[in-house]
Design brief:
The structure is a single chain. The protein is of the alpha/beta class. 40% of the residues lie in helices and 19% in strands. It has a single domain, classed as Rossmann fold.
């Protein structure tokens, strides 16, 4: 069975990140591995383009209900209709993941991977958890209540 490497990252990226994602996808395919991504733009598209340019196979796990939403480099579009919940499918499908840049969606994929015991390696992935942390539990409750009132 072929080994599958997942590339996760932002859907909106600058040229520097696009070049990095392209190189990652290219190297994955050049070494004979299958690429899986979320199938859309940004990091996903650049990695897919790199993989295709190296003659590789690209799987796109799509959030919506139309396989034609996939970027032009996806060979096998998997239509889920479950929006961001597809992130767990990407993680479960991959044998290992590479996170490039990214935001909260990438954080969810990293969290799923960690929970499932999968390794994740990062390139230019400086994500922070992004939550306020309190030593005092009462203060945490107060802040939570303030945020909804």
């Amino acid at each position: 069975m072929m080994k599958i490497i997942g590339v996760i990252g932002g859907h909106s990226v600058d040229d520097k990140i696009r070049v990095i994602a392209y190189k990652v996808g290219y190297e994955i395919a050049k070494r004979g591995f299958v690429l899986v991504t979320g199938g859309l733009g940004g990091v996903m598209e650049a990695a897919s383009m790199g993989a295709k340019d190296a003659g590789g196979l690209v799987i796109g796990i799509l959030p919506g209900i139309d396989k034609y939403d996939a970027n032009d480099y996806v060979d096998i579009p998997i239509v889920t209709g479950i929006n961001e919940m597809r992130n767990v499918i990407i993680v479960r499908t991959a044998d290992v993941l590479i996170a490039i840049d990214g935001g909260t969606g990438t954080l969810t994929e990293i969290a799923f991977a960690k929970h499932l015991g999968k390794k994740v390696f990062g390139v230019k992935c400086d994500l922070e958890i992004g939550i306020e942390n309190f030593e005092d539990p009462i203060e945490a409750v107060n802040k939570a209540i303030e945020s909804i009132c």
